[in-house]
Amino acid sequence: YSSKLCVCRSHERASMTTTTHKNHLFTSPFLVSFLFRILNSFLFLRTFHSADEHYQSVEIAHEFIFKYGAKTWEWREDVKLRSFVHPLLAYAWPYALVKGLRLDEDASLITVLVRAMPRVVNAAQCAFIDVGTYRLARKWYNNDQNVAKKAFALSLASHWHFYCGCRSFANVTETAFCVWALVFWPSGYFDMNAKKRGGGSNSGKSSNSSGFRRKSIRGLVLAFVSCTVRPTAYAFWACVGARTIFFDREALSAKRRARFSADAFWVGCLVLSIEACVNYYYYNKKWTFPAWNFFEFNVLREGASQYGTHSNAWVFTQGLPVVLGVLFPVSLYELFLASNARGNLEDTSSANLPDGGKIIKDNDGTNAKRRKRLSTPAVAKVAFLATVFIVSIPKHKEFRFLYPLIPVSIAASAKSWAWLESEPPDKKSSKNNSKNTTFLLARWFVRLGLAAQIPLAMYLSLIHQRGMETIVNKYVSKLTVEDDVFDGGVHFWTPCHEHPFYASVHKNLTMRYLECDPPNASSVSSHLSSGNWRAFEKNPLAFVERKYGKSSGLKCDDDDVNDVNDDADEDAKTSDDEANNLLPSHVVVFQRERDILWNWFESFQFEEIANEFHAHLSVDRPGQERAHFFARRKKTSRNTTGGGESQRSECASSSKVV
Fold first, then answer.
1. CA atoms of 64 and 76, how far apart (whole Å)
2. How far apart are CA 39 and CA 558, in angstroms?
3. What proportion of the chain, given as a percentage, has pLDDT over 70?
4. β-strand 626-632 against 606-613: which pairing, if any?
5. How far does Cα 30 stand from its chain's mean position?
6. What is the pTM of this model?
7. Cα four-point dihedral sign 193, 199, 202, 205
8. How many CA atoms does the CB half-sphere of 87 hold within 13 Å?
9. Please, is 315 exposed, middle or buried when counting C-beta atoms within 10 Å of its C-beta (0-12, 13-18, 19+)?
10. What integer is the mean pLDDT of 440-465?
11. Burial of 168 from C-beta contacts in 10 A (0-12 / 13-18 / 19+)
12. For residue 215, what pLDDT is reported?
């Protein structure tokens, strides 16, 4: 008996050695992931995905620090739809650091640093997600190193992480906070008996309880910060928190659940008060709650529907298959079908636990005897379903909205992948040939699916929608105020901000874009506006002729006049500013607009200096296969180029010019 006891204790000490992980973040997994994401961000990300990666993050921080940049309608003082927390946490402080270096003599170095800092921050954020997924798998599956390594590998191999993880989206920052909040969340891994959960008089209880509470508070802080980054996280954590407080009775005693609720209250008040102060300062000392404005606009008024609508089944028919790839069926199986497939979950006696119920040291120093968890914890299922529910409510949906469930799905899929990479069960038994065949087919299905993600990630990150990024970074960024830009400056006649802007150029050039505001969203126009996209899209030629002058030999018909006049009131706020009507020195357009305006460009002595590939397939409208950059060949005043009142088109002059 004593010899068996010694063997058991030595085995427990070995188990503790192999399963203990460091409490701090900067471990070898983080360093590996960070280096990988740096390469991802700087060498393998040359494409555009969505306007929000520029105009809801880096542009706002750039304008705040350097006092010039773009503010879209969401950030105007009569709308206040966005919280300044995300630009402040992620990008304002790196910009402030660069500005504080005071390298006035070397403007080129400052420009390089301003362009590089967001990429470094984005790489770090994605590395946080990778390591958080690794830690989440360890927590959920009893510190199983094999499953954790598989989760880490799947996160690095994710085509969606590679494509979107190193972009300046609030969704990425939100996911980084969410995954680490789940790591420290009080449910999902403890399997202590009721005496240890609910309390007792043992000497170790006090330290264990304090360590448990510290971790819970960390999770709460991260959860509430994610809510300040993106308001949809409120619904996510409401679902997860309700599950923990009201239904997690086996893992948490009533006392601990009550204490957790109290901690959630004061942590929430603290974090949200800080957010309120940040927004009070940013919005010129006016108290506001952007989360409510966001909810009212997107849910109650369905204002985002102007950017596209989708069916309620979109999440399962398009969203999840695209962002998860081969892991979509694997994660669904592991989360909802494999609960009792590989073990009896009810027998928690020491004799039936793997390795006799080995001791595993956790982050907070507690030594909790836990069964090897053969099923994915309920908190993972709630987190997955909560994200699906949140994304399904509004009519407007985007793939990046599903980002918070990606780490959850990867951690769950890692368990199935680890099982598939093991030996087939009963390999020598002829009775189980069909099972072994199914096992091997599933294994190769996952392997081939993961291999297929590599070329997909490369295509999306290097080829698909790269034209506008190339034009801005290769051509516009090299322009100078003294020699190149004059009159109306650089105009982007593209849909809804589908291009980078000042944060990618870091020069105080005169640049303007076509606004894409929802109807009645704002009564204040941006000084960077060159008009309204809807008016331009209906008839580009009639729009530019009314605004800048008529090209020779062309006339507008009556229908064109009516189309332009229909939008006159909507465009009036920009037409009042005479500077907005100056003929641009440079124009950026897509292929459709280039073909329509070709004769107009020639009449005003514009020369095409860049014709860049953009996409093989149209993204959201026809004619986006190529991106074009035009420059006017000589400086001429507006009155000698056909831009004055005397040279306006007949159709424009016969109508009311606001």
1. 13
2. 55
3. 76
4. antiparallel
5. 20
6. 0.86
7. positive
8. 26
9. buried
10. 96
11. buried
12. 92
